[in-house]
Design goal:
Number of domains of chain B: 3
CATH superfamily of the largest domain in chain B: Glutamyl-tRNA reductase, N-terminal domain
CATH class of the largest domain in chain B: Alpha Beta
Number of strands of chain A: 0
Number of domains of chain A: 2
Strand content of chain A: under 5%
Strand order of the largest sheet of chain B: 7-6-5-8-9-10
Helix content of chain A: 55-70%
Radius of gyration of chain B: 31 Å
Strand content of chain B: 5-15%
Shape of chain B: elongated
Largest interface: A-B, 25 and 31 residues
Structural class of chain B: alpha/beta
Largest sheet of chain B: 6 strands, parallel
CATH architecture of the largest domain in chain B: 2-Layer Sandwich
CATH topology of the largest domain in chain B: Beta Polymerase, domain 2
Order of helices and strands of chain A: HHHHHHHHH
Oligomer: heterodimer
Number of helices of chain B: 16
Distance between the termini of chain A: 35 Å
Structural class of chain A: mainly alpha
Chain lengths: 305, 422
């Protein structure tokens, strides 16, 4: 029965949680926090069940499609949101995180490719390391982006000498600055592992009978560009002390988000061989899996060209 | 059953009288001890703050001390003339006394409405009275209800959320929005203004302990530094001290800015974290252009006053909701209090119906000897239900009538109808 859970279930729960977050700006309520957490928590549960059934019903590597990747990123962000709301109930984290979550889910439904990436025994472990680390790196960039936006919003209020607005409490600048710095460090580490494991993966795949992924592939190029930017950003914060404080670190995380958008946009919109089956065995496995269908509840972009 | 309050507050009583009437903790204990001896069988709680002195008395079946008696006691205790005191005293009885305590506990009658201190002062007053054994069932119920109402108002309205004094706004609405914790923050105090000291007190409550004082007069700097357990630095090191600080409070009486934009540019590259500057001096100590620099948050007295005014408006919007909670809770409290007065009649009614029920039940069960234990139990339950149903309408009428006061007429009617003894 639980296998009937669709994207609509958890997306609707997150939307209600977001509406409740927005209602903080309008009126006070003693029970809203609990209701908001119940909706977000319920959504996360449905989201987990959905991903579980998707993983067990796949004949390819579990949760290895572009669509899954976006949905897992959304899942991690919701988990982070629930953690933050539990420990900092007065702060309006949801106003910043939940739109991103819904954006990721919408992208998964409307643009992302539902076909699982090809896999082969020799590359399965490296494939998982590659996918997980890139995913965590991207989530870290997204969290850094949220912290950066919150920082700029809080700093703007303080510069304009305005007392806090009802329902729009934000963490202190010091807390947000710490979150920004940590997000940069974590994202650079995770993406570093992701890029390195991707290179190993490509080397393994580069057997005589399998064509390796070209370095000029748009996804490879844009991901490398993002990683290079993050490397530079963390290098700047390491060497140049003023970049570690205040607005500058917030701007670095916002710039990282722009690079992330470029990388994701390239992956979604341009022709790429990244993750595509490049031999006949892979191709037939992927086709078998896709023809099985998923209880997504909304359409995906369909197969790759 | 009676409750009353006699006292004076900042509304009508000049500070000269209030400060003479104020009780220290030791005096409170002594006064309660004396009151217990003078007014036997009367429960007493004494609330003394810098803005009010109030004596709450309550008793059941005993006459409460009059306003004059309380005034005489207060005057005698503090060695002043009762006639000097009487014009300022107010006296509220029963429902009004309950309303008053609830309003006071919720900080709706404070000089700074919404300030948090009063609740702990009410708690302290109640605790002292309990320790001195001058409380009883009535004052326990009354003060516990007052604390409950205050908690409800705090939870359901934002009356306490809006600070309206300059130091509290500076710390709660601005400093705490910049810094997550204050333990390791370096605070620099420039000058020796009174508002600076008050702000420092708030900051110390938040954990600030690394304090540096810079003053044109080295002697004054050392004196202040000793008072605040900080260190003094010479005036010539002002720029270095600002560069090392996280928070700056400036309250000099200087006619010229103590730091210009040019001075600030010289130290800007040494800043380690966002810098919070409270310029409480008039004329201002810091060039306002410094506030335009990135990661510098500069607030003048005017800025803080504007924030206070905005908070005051926001807080005033919360007042109707807070008063509505107080009225609702006071009404409920009085209804419960009145309903308690009907307790003996209800008890007699129940007992009066219980006896014939038991007799009839025994008679019936003696006749129905064939019944097994389960069936006998069912019959017993049936009789209980019947009595409860018959009692329900008069009890409900009593509860309804209690909302408007002790229902003497109804109690009398019930006593006569059912021949209840006193």
């Amino acid at each position: 029965m639980l296998s009937g859970v669709s994207v609509i279930c958890f997306a609707a729960s997150y939307t209600v949680a977001l509406v409740l977050e927005v209602s903080r700006l309008l009126f006070r309520s003693g029970v809203r926090g609990a209701v908001m957490m119940a909706f977000a928590g319920g959504g996360l549960l449905a989201h987990s069940v959905f991903l579980y059934y998707r993983a067990v019903s796949s004949t390819a590597s579990p949760l290895s499609s572009q669509q899954d990747w976006f949905l897992i990123a959304a899942w991690v962000l919701v988990a982070v949101y629930l953690y933050l709301v539990y420990y900092h109930p007065k702060n309006a984290f949801g106003l910043f995180i939940l739109p991103l979550v819904l954006g990721l889910i919408a992208t998964a439904c409307l643009f992302a490719d539902p076909q699982p990436y090809a896999h082969e025994p020799a590359s399965k472990v490296w494939g998982m390391i590659h996918g997980t680390s890139i995913l965590m790196g991207v989530v870290a960039v997204l969290i850094g982006f949220v912290a950066g936006l919150m920082y700029l919003s809080q700093a703007r209020r303080l510069k304009h000498k305005l007392p806090p607005t009802r329902g729009f409490n934000l963490p202190s600048l010091e807390w947000l600055q710490g979150a920004n710095s940590r997000a940069i460090v974590i994202s650079v580490l995770m993406l570093g592992v992701g890029v390195l494991s991707g290179m190993i993966l490509n080397r393994i795949k580069g057997q005589p009978d399998v064509a390796p992924l070209p370095w000029t592939d748009p996804v490879v190029l844009s991901t490398t560009l993002m990683f290079a930017w993050l490397l530079v950003a963390s290098g700047i914060t390491l060497v140049y002390r003023p970049a570690r404080i205040g607005h500058k670190v917030a701007y670095l995380t916002l710039a990282s988000f722009v690079f992330l958008m470029i990388a994701l946009g390239v992956g979604l919109l341009l022709e790429t061989q990244h993750g595509s089956p490049r031999d006949e065995q892979d191709r037939s496995q992927v086709e078998d899996t896709v023809s099985g269908g998923f209880p997504l509840g909304c359409g995906g972009r369909g197969g790759r060209a | 059953m009676n409750v009353q309050v006699v006292g004076c507050s900042h509304h009508d009583t000049p500070i000269a009288i209030r400060e003479r009437l104020a009780f220290s903790a030791e005096q409170t204990r002594e006064a309660l001890d004396q009151l217990r001896r003078v007014f036997r069988h009367v429960e007493v709680v004494l609330l003394s703050t810098c803005n009010r002195v109030e004596v709450y008395t309550a008793a059941e079946g005993v006459e409460l001390p009059s306003g004059e008696q309380i005034a005489e006691f207060l005057a005698r205790f503090h060695g002043i003339e009762a006639t000097e005191l009487l014009p300022y005293l107010y006296q509220h009885g029963a429902g009004d006394a309950v309303d008053h305590l609830f309003v006071v506990s919720c900080s709706l009658d404070s000089m700074v409405i919404g300030e948090n201190q009063i609740l702990s002062q009410v708690k302290q007053a109640y605790q002292s009275a309990t320790d001195q054994d001058t409380t009883g069932p009535l004052t326990h119920t009354l003060f516990q209800a007052a604390l409950h109402v205050a908690r409800r108002v705090a939870a359901e309205t934002a009356i306490h959320a809006h600070r309206v004094s300059i130091p509290s706004v500076a710390v709660a609405d601005f400093a705490k929005q910049i810094f997550e914790s204050f333990e390791e923050k370096k605070t620099l105090v420039i000058g020796a203004g009174e508002m600076g000291e008050e702000t420092l007190r708030y900051l110390q409550d938040e954990g600030v302990h690394d304090i540096t004082v810079v003053n044109r007069s080295p002697g004054r700097a050392t004196e202040l530094a000793e008072r605040w357990q900080g260190k003094a630095r010479p005036w010539e090191e002002l720029s270095e001290a600002v560069a090392e600080a996280d928070l700056v409070i400036s309250t000099t009486g200087s006619g010229e800015p103590v730091m210009t934009l040019e001075d600030f540019r010289g130290i800007e590259s040494h800043l380690r974290r966002p810098l919070f500057i409270l310029d409480l001096a008039v004329p201002r100590d810091f060039d306002p252009a410094i506030g335009e620099r990135a990661d510098v948050y500069l607030y003048s007295v005017d800025d803080l006053q504007a924030a206070c005014a905005k908070n005051r408006t926001e807080r005033d919007k919360e007042l109707p909701a807070a008063m509505s909670i107080v009225r609702q809770e006071a009404g409920r409290f009085m209804a419960d209090l009145h309903h308690r007065a009907t307790g003996p009649v209800i008890e007699q009614l129940r007992k009066g119906w219980q006896k014939p029920k038991e007799e009839e039940l025994a008679r019936l069960l003696n006749k129905l000897t064939d019944l097994d234990e389960g069936s006998r139990e069912e019959v017993r339950r049936s009789f209980d239900r019947l009595v409860n149903k018959l009692l329900h309408p008069p009890l409900e009428s009593l509860r309804d009538e209690s909302r408007h006061g002790i229902p003497h007429t109804l109690l009398d009617a019930l006593s006569r109808l059912f021949k209840l003894r006193d």
